[in-house]
C-alpha cells in the first residue's frame, strides 16, 4: 500500500512550516492505522508512506480508513490546510532482505498511487479479485493501463473518493435521539492491539515445547531449546514490528539462542557455542536500524 499527499510541493511553497506539521500528523495517523490493521510501515519518505500487509483485505480496509479519517479532518480545516491523499494497493510477491522490500509488487503499488483520484484509492486486478466478494465498495473498472517500467498492462480499478462532510451537511442530516445516559458519563473506549492469530499459535507451540519436560518426558533439552528459540523469534518479530526497528528481532533471537545453554544440559562446549552464537546475533541486532525501503 502506497499513500501519498497530492499537491505536496505546492503546499510546501505556500507555508513550509505548517505543511511539515501536517505531514508529520499524516505519518503518525497512517502508522497507527497500518498497525491497527496488522500491517507494518516500511518507509515514510517525504510525503509518502509505504506499508505492507499479510492480508490484502486488511490493506484495502486500512486504505479506506485512512481516506475516511482524512476526509473528516479536512471538513474542519481551511482550504489551504487540507491534505488530499492518493493511495495505491497491489497484491504480489516481494523480496524481503533485512526488512527492505524489493520487487515488481513494490513498483506497481508506487505506480498505482498517482493514478488514484485525490481522496481515492487505485487497486490492481489482483487486489480486486481478492476483495470483490468480501468488501462492499463502490469501484470503477478503468481498464487496462500500461504502467511506467512495468512490462505488461494491468487492469485497474478505482475506489470512489470519500466525500468531505461539511458542517452544513452535518446540520442537515437527521440527528439521533438523545440517549438516556449522558454521553460524557460513558467511559471512553480504549483501543487494544490484539496479537495476530499466527503469533498466538506459534507462541503456544513454543511454550509447549519449552515446558515439554514437565508436561511429557525428558527430551535431553532438544524440545525446550527449540521452544525457546521459537518464542524468541515470535516475540522478536512483534517487538521489531511495533518499534519499527529491525535490529530488535536479532536481539530477541540472540537471547533465545543464548538461553539454549540453560536447557540442554549437554557438554560445556555445546553450551558455550549456544552462548557465543546468542551474543553474536544479539550484538548484530544492536546496530540494526529502522525499517526502510527503496525510494520511489
The value of Rg in angstroms is 24 Å
List how many beta strands DSSP finds.
Answer: 9
| Helix-strand pattern | EHHEEHEEEHEHEEHHHHHHH
Q: Give the helix proportion (percent range).
A: 40-55%
Low-confidence stretches: 165-194, 289-296
Output the strand order for the largest sheet.
Answer: 2-3-1-4-7-9-8
Shape: elongated
Task: Report the sheet with the most strands, covering strand number, pairing sense and barrel closure.
Answer: 7 strands, mixed
Query: Which class do the helix and strand fractions yield?
Result: alpha+beta
Average residue pLDDT: 75
N-end to C-end Cα span: 13 Å
The fraction of residues in strands falls at 15-25%
* Helix segment tally: 12
Fold blueprint:
Layout: E1 2-6, H1 8-14, H2 16-36, E2 39-43, E3 48-53, H3 56-75, E4 84-89, E5 95-97, E6 100-102, H4 104-112, E7 121-124, H5 125-131, E8 139-145, E9 154-159, H6 167-172, H7 197-210, H8 212-215, H9 222-243, H10 247-258, H11 260-264, H12 268-286
Parallel strand pairs: 4-7
Antiparallel strand pairs: 1-3, 1-4, 2-3, 5-6, 7-9, 8-9
Helix pairs in contact: 1-2, 2-3, 7-9, 9-10, 10-12
Amino acid at each position: 500500500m502506497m499513500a501519498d499527499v497530492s499537491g505536496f510541493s505546492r503546499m510546501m511553497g505556500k507555508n513550509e512550516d505548517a505543511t511539515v506539521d501536517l505531514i508529520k500528523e499524516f505519518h503518525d495517523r497512517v502508522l497507527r492505522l497500518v498497525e491497527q490493521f496488522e500491517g507494518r510501515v516500511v518507509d515514510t519518505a517525504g510525503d509518502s508512506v509505504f506499508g505492507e500487509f499479510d492480508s490484502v483485505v486488511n490493506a484495502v480496509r486500512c486504505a479506506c480508513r485512512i481516506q475516511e479519517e482524512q476526509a473528516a479532518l479536512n471538513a474542519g480545516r481551511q482550504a489551504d490546510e487540507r491534505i488530499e491523499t492518493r493511495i495505491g494497493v497491489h497484491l504480489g510477491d516481494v523480496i524481503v532482505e533485512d526488512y527492505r522490500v524489493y520487487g515488481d509488487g513494490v513498483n506497481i503499488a508506487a505506480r498505482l498511487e498517482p493514478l488514484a483520484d485525490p481522496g481515492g484509492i487505485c487497486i490492481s486486478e489482483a487486489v480486486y479479485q481478492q476483495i470483490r466478494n468480501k468488501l462492499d465498495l463502490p469501484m470503477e473498472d478503468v481498464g487496462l493501463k500500461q504502467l511506467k517500467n512495468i512490462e505488461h498492462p494491468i487492469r485497474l480499478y478505482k475506489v470512489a473518493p470519500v466525500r468531505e462532510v461539511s458542517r452544513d451537511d452535518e446540520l442537515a442530516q437527521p440527528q439521533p435521539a438523545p440517549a438516556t445516559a449522558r454521553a460524557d458519563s460513558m467511559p471512553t473506549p480504549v483501543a487494544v492491539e490484539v496479537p495476530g492469530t499466527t503469533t498466538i499459535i506459534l507462541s503456544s507451540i513454543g511454550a509447549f515445547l519449552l515446558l515439554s519436560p514437565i508436561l511429557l518426558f525428558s527430551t535431553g533439552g532438544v524440545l525446550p531449546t527449540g521452544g525457546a528459540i521459537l518464542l524468541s523469534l515470535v516475540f522478536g518479530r512483534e517487538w521489531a514490528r511495533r518499534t519499527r526497528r529491525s535490529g530488535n528481532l536479532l536481539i530477541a533471537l540472540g537471547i533465545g539462542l543464548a538461553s539454549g545453554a540453560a536447557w540442554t544440559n549437554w557438554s560445556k562446549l555445546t553450551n558455550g557455542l549456544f552462548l557465543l552464537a546468542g551474543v553474536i546475533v544479539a550484538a548484530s541486532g544492536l546496530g540494526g536500524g529502522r525499517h526502510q525501503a527503496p525510494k520511489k
